[in-house]
Amino acid sequence: MTFSRNAAGHLAALLTILIWGTTFISTKVLLRSFSPVEILFIRFTIGYLSLLAFFPKFLPFRELRHELYYAGAGLSGVTLYFLVENIALTHTLASNVGIMVSAAPLFTALLAWLWLKRKRPGGRFFLGFGAAIAGIALIVFNGNTVLKLNPLGDLLAILAALIWAVYSILTKLIAGFNLNMVLCTRRIFFYGWLFMIPALFLFGFQPETARCFEWLNLFNLLFLGFGATALCFAVWNWTVKVLGPVETSLYIYLVPVVTVLSSALILRERLTPAAIAGTILTLAGLLISEERLRLPGIRTWRSLLKKQTTRPE
Fold first, then answer.
1. How distant, in Å, are the alpha carbons of 176, 204, 244 from that of 286?
2. Could you list the residue ranges that cross the membrane (predicted)?
């Protein structure tokens, strides 16, 4: 039973990353018609309404402490993370942001150790982190550029990684309430949506509905709102409950891998040797960071296969 639940958690995390790794294509298309904050607001509005339609029950008020956790998760994982990341992109290279944000698993492991009193990250974790970051660097630079430091933008990108780590820890604490994670995710979205409203006025929100109903924009908004937001956040939060914040956050390493592969398949971008090497190095880093030189559950799969291939006497 434990294995099947853990296996489901790993598969759910992988599914989430596969979708999140392709969102850049939809966002790139939508940026022709919308500002980043407009995409963010519409995306999470659709996400909230999708969860409401899927599960039209309401989470009752229990304790002020619970609401503070929901509000903190909404502020960190919904509002601040995306806004800080978008602002970072205006001050530094996208490649820099891709590498800096990938430090989220490191911050998550450190916060889990300090905040949740979990096991201190071991040497293999840091070795895997170094390998994954090196692989991600090969992927995002693709052998064509060199790292150009832009202090403000790079610091904001690191801050975004730290904010996502805070969100991961808060999600684990919320999972401890033993409530329906879809309802918990919707409550998080609600607070994130509220905190997002002041940003709309700061960044110039223009409520023109005609743009939303152009078929290409509508398709990408629905993909981001329903798929990448409602579905993925609910699944991700459940995965944190099952696997824990540290092990789940390791899958963030795979986002650049999925991005470069989807670019090659969808946009017909050339898959260079540097990108291939970076993909292999990133996967190795993920494997090592889990502090076991095997994929989750591989021994169990082998034992199951042996049972199936063994003939009864």
1. 26, 40, 15
2. 12-31, 37-55, 67-84, 96-116, 125-143, 155-176, 188-206, 218-238, 250-267, 273-289
**Burial per residue of 95-131, b for 16 or more beta-carbon CB atoms within 10 angstroms, e otherwise:** bbbbbbbbbbbbbbbebbeeeeebeebeeebeebbeb
Q: Which of 32, 12, 50 is nearest to 193 (CA)?
A: 50
H/E stretch holding 111 reads: helix 104-114
pLDDT digits (tens, 9 = 90+) for 246-271: 889 989 888 878 877 777 777 666 77
pLDDT tens, residue by residue, 76-122: 999 999 888 878 877 776 666 777 788 888 899 889 988 888 888 88
Whole-number Å distance between alpha carbons of 85 and 83: 5
Q: How many CA atoms lie within 13 A of 263 on its CB side?
A: 18
Q: Which two tokens stand for residue 18?
A: 């596969």
**If you ran DSSP here, which 8-state letter would residue 230 be given?**
I
Domain housing 258: 2-309
| Number of folded domains that form the chain | 1
Cα separation, 234 vs 106, whole angstroms: 23
- In angstroms, the CA 244 to CA 180 distance is 17
Q: Using CA atoms of 119, 255, 211, 225 in order, give the dihedral in degrees to the nearest 10.
A: -40
